[in-house]
Request: fold
Amino acid sequence: MSILHNIFFFIIAIGVLVTFHEFGHYWVARKLGVKVLRFSVGFGKPLITWRRKNDRDGVEYAIAAIPLGGYVKMLDEREGNVREDELNRAFNRQPVLNRSLIVFAGPAFNFILAILFYWMVFVVGTTAQRPLLGVPESASMAEQAGFGDKDEILAVGESAVASWSNFRIALIDQGLDGGTLDIKARDADGFEQTRSLQLGDTRVLEDETDIVAKLGFSMWRPELPPEIGGVVEDSAASQAGLSKGDTIRAINAEPVSQWEEIVERVRSNPGQLLVFTIDRQGQRLDINVIPGSKKQADEIVGYIGAYQHVPDEVRDQLLVEIKYGLLESIPKAVVKTWDMSLLTLRVLWKMVTGEASLNNISGPITIAQYAGVTATIGFTTFIGFLAIISVSLGVLNLLPIPMLDGGHLLYYLIETIKGGPVSETFEARGQQIGVMILALLMMIALFNDFQRLLQ
Reply:
């Protein structure tokens, strides 16, 4: 997948989320009579500017060069002279309640957008991986709890599970504090049972290890013939000349009969030359393939970017369609947004207290990669990704950190309690602290991004 592809969908994602966030500030400000001077998507030098006809305020709309945020500039005596006849429309002259509503509107619109995106996902429907378990890792928590091959997860605690991604999120959500985790599953014979996973003092996000693998779970993988179902663009497989429909008969002259044998051989040989013997339309060929390298858990593994052909009858076992009606999807979207907001807050708190690793913080590079990947997978996957990022933006902007919306709301709370605005010195000092915190977070995020790229 090309870098330009990722950048394009990253800009689309950030553009949509930032525009909606800033529109919240803009719309509420105008409804409350505050004069808006500029609505900018992006920071820095404006690339495009325009004004709407018949707009009595002459608001300037702009798209700026740095697509990592935006702002709404309002009439304010602290930023310049204001005419006497417009003082009542200056932001700083508004009651505390009005200022609070304008500031809160940005994050609120992010939550509204997330609800809309989740509603779209539920209405359009998604085809997801069914939460079927493979044989648990020896001596793992999963094995000790009694899970077996082809168990289907039905619920984690009180959270119903319909897909593998639901299972992963539920493990994070309910496993943050350790302790005992009750998981309801249906075995291969159709018998349902609740098993207790003993986490003890384990914190599921205390390091970067994949949560599912950390607990000893793995996805059920059927025995499949060694036929390639497709290759990823610009991958080792595509560069070597492997293509859909190829049947792999041997690797380095050693016969293979199942897809999992290919996976194991590739994983154990990162960066090493492998000779694939294949059948292609009745012709036997030898193709040289050099697997790429990536870090998984605590080891470096190989991968080539090819996926197996899955027969229809097996696909029906592996996949599940999740879809709801127009009205049924509304409360589900609201609940999903609420749950993801609470989970985001809890994870952030665990990072602050040291119970979750700071390596879980992602920056613009990782977000761009996920934007590109989810857009390639399909519309609903990309929309679901936007919903998650929109929730994150809403939550992060409400944190009581100066420079963020939550920081301004904190100032207004203090103003309400003491009966007057905070001093300029106090606000300036707070701004300095806010800049330092945000700069530190950005440094951590970028460090994690680059570390993932190198790995």
Remarks:
- The radius of gyration is 26 Å.
- The mean pLDDT is 87.
- The first helix runs from residue 3 to 31.
- The CA atoms of residues 133 and 298 lie 22 Å apart.
